[in-house]
Amino acid sequence: VTVLGAGTLLTFLVGTVAAVYSAWAVTRPFNQLSLVKEQLTQEKLKRISQSKAVSCFVPYGSLDLLGCDSITSLEMGTSCLRPLTVLFVCLRSFEEVSSYLSPQESVVYLNAWLAGVVPEVTSHGGIIDKLLGDTVLVFFEKPHQAMEAALGMFKHVQLHNNTDDAEPMRLHIGMNTGDVVLGTIGTESRMETTTVGDAVNVASRMASLSHMYQTPFLCSHSTRTHLKKKSGVRFRALGPARVKGRPHPVNVCEVLDVQSEEQQTLKSASDDIFQEAATAFADEEFGEAQRLLKLVLRHNPDDGPALFMKQWVEKGPIKFVK
């Protein structure tokens, strides 16, 4: 056994400490660099997480159309005029269903509906403007994308209704194409992006009319003309309708593709008579309109628009739609 003297032991300890320090000094920059990288990575992940969270509440597509690269660059009063196709998507069955569901069950019911609506909008390039409970306001730059999304929403509802024990859903959509003002409204402390203008109002009236006409999907003649014929969508013209807030009537079209094959066949077969009835109705020739509408309903008693017109013929001309 070798016994070290005090001096030798001290020399050994000093040398060991020096070696450890040298090794630490050499690796310290690398350790600091790794620490900085870790901190930057965490900050980046935090920003990404925050951005995703904000995107759930702020329609970033609207920022792009407004020419803003981030939400921080959005200013009060920023606006632009764009040709857009606007949809009001309404869950008409919610009022009835919510009367016997608990509040928690009502939320689950709404979210089950939105689980089909939202993906159809985003996957077809649309932007969700507002979630208004049982109504969703969305818009698209291209009419054919709007139509494809709407048809997809009806397929989702059909699949839901075919599910055992599922609460039934009844969907109505109003669609219109035209110039829309997209901008920010509110105050410096609370603002949001939104769409306003006559084209938006007409889309809302189409949704209201769809309920009154007892048909699930209405669009304006403007949307129909913007859609290319190769879209393959089947329409039936319903004639002009006077709507609240507009001095002139709006030409309304019924989208047949979302209806049963039986209804599509029956409505196509009686379309010539129906068009004569719609013309007489618009010209306030109510006696002739009533005669023709009875022929249509004899052929198809479940023709919602024909039933609506016949009721108005018997009670008086249509004044406005709320």
UniProtKB/TrEMBL annotation:
Ranges for domain Guanylate cyclase come to 85-207
Note one Pfam family from the annotation. Guanylate_cyc
- In its UniProt entry, what is this protein called? Guanylate cyclase domain-containing protein
Instruction: List the lineage, top down.
Output: Eukaryota, Discoba, Euglenozoa, Euglenida, Spirocuta
Which BP terms in the Gene Ontology apply to this protein?
cAMP biosynthetic process; intracellular signal transduction
Quote the SMART domains the UniProt record gives.
Answer: CYCc
